[in-house]
Amino acid sequence: MNPHDDNARISARLADFALKLTLDDIPSAVRERAKHLILDGIGLALATSAFDYAGIALAAMRELGDGQSTVFGKSGRLALRDAMLANGLLVHGLDFDDTHSRGVIHSTASALPCAFGLAERERASGAEMLTAYIVAMEVSTRVGAVAQSGFHKVGFHPTGLVGAFGCALAASKLMRLSPRAAMHAQGIVLSMAAGSLEFLEDGAWTKRLHPGWAASSATTAATLAKHGYIGPEAAYEGRYGLYSLYLAEGAKPDLSIATAGLGETWEIDQVALKPIPACHFTHASSDAAIALHREHALAADAIEKVVVRVPGPVVDVVCEPVANKKRPANSYDAQFSIPYIVATGLLKGRFTLDDLEPSALADAAVLSLAQRVEYEVDAESTFPRHYTGEVIVHTRDGRRFAHREAVNRGSSDRPMTNQGIVDKFHDNALRVVSRERADRVRDAVLGLERASVADLAGILRQPD
Question: Which family does this protein fall into (predicted)?
């Protein structure tokens, strides 16, 4: 089948793009942005390593056996797929990682562990790792965008579900598969792709595993395909393909998005960076609350009620169930809670990792105000292009204050600069490593085209 035929399978066309792509094909600005996204992910991984769930997950992985693959920021090594699972958790654990708005996917959290892990094993160059990372990013974001925000509506988490397909092609590239084998890898991983949103009900830790599982599953699928294992060819458009199985009946995915602009337009340019450690759907509302704090500095007891206007599709994620959102049981609950995040912004003028600590989650003034936070669907929202938010405060003496964020900070229309990403990296990395080591990691990542992955891995494993 000719992959350039308009009737060719989507998996064949994506495989053709992935296997033929070279670093020279990619504009220099896109390559530079990709390296900064990798840097952001590694900084987050270092910061996450200090949290209890990270230690528990790593202990579990160690029980499964040692190996030769690097875990970000750790001296010990794991088996390849276990290291991918751990590294995905470390990148995604704080929910502070990048988001492709149209695909609604945290794409680096799966792309980086997959590209890094296989590049290390294959003794690849930094340039080869960077190219494979960009393949995973470009494919996963497009595959996610096809669903038109529909995966969340039926309880699936696109980061795990869709990340597996981009990673299958990154793995195929690094393992030098044939076009047909790369097509089969996508079909094989269709039976492995997963990611449930049930964690939203009780703050469970499972979401943190999704991107690493995507990377690990993709590596399994590509290895099976390399050895001749046959997968379905219609992984995406088939009767039981991705969109038929994982979207609600009556949903209208736009299949053309999967291959639109391949090699000409770059979805990495549309990846948003997170300025606060919470679900991206909350960011505009958080910034609106912080703006009101700076302008009016209202005391908690002066506020009668707060109304937050949010896009309709995000209500189930960050506003419901109401009781859970108004009194988060743990840090993960808090990161997906409009009432808690808005109350924190109004009273403290910030939302940082410190606001996810147990003492912050028990703050009586914040919890009291959170009980008075309500939501409305924002009829003027431009979601999913922008994750809008508006906060309206009604005071006990009859005043009304409002602030709207029509374009969320960090989005492609209001992007974080590359220097801003470096600053964020240092803010996160310096929580657990020395300045000297953080600088070495920065230099290695930003010079990736001229380095070996083995050199980067050595720096990441080196203890302070």
Answer: Belongs to the PrpD family.
- Alpha carbons 81 and 214: distance in angstroms, whole number: 10
Which tens digit of pLDDT belongs to each residue from 97-116?
999 989 999 999 999 999 99
The closest of 356, 222, 345 to 277, measured between CA atoms, is 356
Q: Residue 391: what are its φ and ψ, rounded to 5°?
A: -115, 130
| DSSP state at residue 24 | G
pLDDT tens digits, 221-271: 999 999 999 999 999 999 999 999 999 999 999 999 999 999 999 999 999
Residues of the chain with CATH 3.30.1330.120: 280-405
Of 333, 320, 336, which Cα lies nearest the Cα of 362?
333
Distance between start and end Cα atoms, the chain: 53
Q: CB–CB of 144/100 below 8 Å?
A: yes
Cβ atoms within 10 A of the Cβ of 239, count? 8
Q: Which of 44, 161, 130, 101 is nearest to 427 (CA)?
A: 44
Rounded-to-10 torsion of CA 327, 333, 337, 340 = 50
Domain with CATH 1.10.4100.10 in the chain: 10-274+426-461
Q: Confirm if 266 and 30 have CB atoms less than 8 A apart.
A: yes
Q: Of 304, 280, 306, which is closest to residue 292 (Cα–Cα)?
A: 306
- What confidence tens digit (pLDDT) does each residue in 46-78 have? 999 999 999 999 999 999 999 999 999 999 999
pTM of the model: 0.89
Residues 119, 113: Cα–Cα separation, whole Å: 10
Partner residues linked to 415 by β-bridges: 410
From the number of C-beta atoms within 10 Å of its C-beta (0-12, 13-18, 19+), residue 252 rates as: exposed
Per residue in 410-438, pLDDT (tens digit) is 988 899 999 999 999 999 999 999 999 99
Homologous superfamily of 10-274+426-461 in CATH? Answer: 2-methylcitrate dehydratase PrpD (1.10.4100.10)
CA-based diameter of the chain, in Å?
73
C-alpha distances in angstroms, 298 versus 303, 312, 363, 369, 401? 7, 28, 17, 11, 10
Which of 169, 182, 162 minimizes the C-alpha distance to 109?
162
Q: Return the CATH number of 280-405, one of 3.30.1330.120, 3.40.470.10, 3.40.50.300, 3.40.190.10.
A: 3.30.1330.120
Q: Which residues pair with 156 in a beta bridge?
A: 196
Q: Which two tokens stand for residue 240?
A: 């039981």
Q: 136 and 114 in contact (C-beta within 8 Å)?
A: yes
For 363-396, letters b (16+ CB in 10 Å) and e give beebbebbebbebeebeebebbebbbbbbbbbee
